Amino acid sequence: AAMGSQIERLTADLIVTEDALAEKRAILQHRLIEIAKRGPLFTAQVLLAAESFGDLLSRYKYLYMVSRQDRQLVRDVQALRDSVRAQRDGLLNLRSSLERRRDERAEEAERLRRLERGVLRLLRGQRPGRDDQGEQRPHTSLRCRPTLTIEPRRPNSPPAQMPISDWVLVKKAAGMR
Could you point out which of 29, 61, 84, 101 has its C-alpha 20 to 30 Å from the C-alpha of 67? Predict the structure, then answer.
């Protein structure tokens, strides 16, 4: 549940950032079109059209401020682009982590079901490693454990050749101490 809400929050943040990036890109595209329309001599024309020294300083200050805003706009677009990339990577990592956890839980549930079936067979008196028809089953990692043979058998002791960990589960399931 926590990962799901985190994914939703990251997705919402990513959408907001992508919208801001699209807006800044549109502004930048408009500025680039304006710069291209005016041509390379626009700055010189603006400065040479000044009628006085004060007018020249005002025009220079105006051009300087516009160029500063344009540079800041480019930096903003780059930062937003990097932020979108990082948020996408984070979201993909979080989703893959969630998928791995789901897979691990499914595997764990399957191991638990196999163990429960084994315990039920033991409670019904079947030997481990054989199915209901007495056919030999392939060994699984749950069956490859050290066994303990006890001679003679005492009350509440594991049957011969039964893994001790299975015997503990059988005792708990049967309510034995």
Answer: 84
